[in-house]
Each structure stands twice: as structure tokens, then as C-alpha cells.
Amino acid sequence: MFTFVAVTLFSLTFLMAVGTIAWMFLHYHDKMVAALLFQPIPQDAPVYHVRIRRPRVVPSARRATPSLSTGILAA
Predict the structure, then answer these.
(1) pTM exceeds cut of 0.70
(2) How far apart are CA 68 and CA 73, in angstroms?
(3) Which segments cross the bilayer (predicted)?
């Protein structure tokens, strides 16, 4: 009896798997063919011309403004 139940379950699951594969093949046949026949458009690799410009800092002729002395702020 165990053998009969095991064979039945195995057969049913095998048939269900085959049915699922067949259904998916029939349902998605057009998409699979389109994917196999697809030829991507060739694109040239982009070329980047990068210029880094960092001018040297020229010392300023101006003097920095004097800061407030701490004595003024102390109350």
C-alpha cells in the first residue's frame, strides 16, 4: 500500500512539473524567441576629457581685519 501511495504522489508531482513547464513554454514562447533574437545596439565607449585647473594662491596685498579684543566682550 505504501508503494502505491508513493508511486501515485511521485507521478502526480512529476506530471504537475511537466505541465507547469509546458504551460510556461506555451505562454512565454514569444518572449523567449524575442530574447534569443535580440541584438543590442553597439555603443562606443564614452571618452571623457578631464581638465583639472588649480591656480596657485597669490598672497593678498590686503591685511586681515583685526578681531575684537577679548577685553571688550568680558563684562
Answers:
(1) no
(2) 8
(3) 6-26
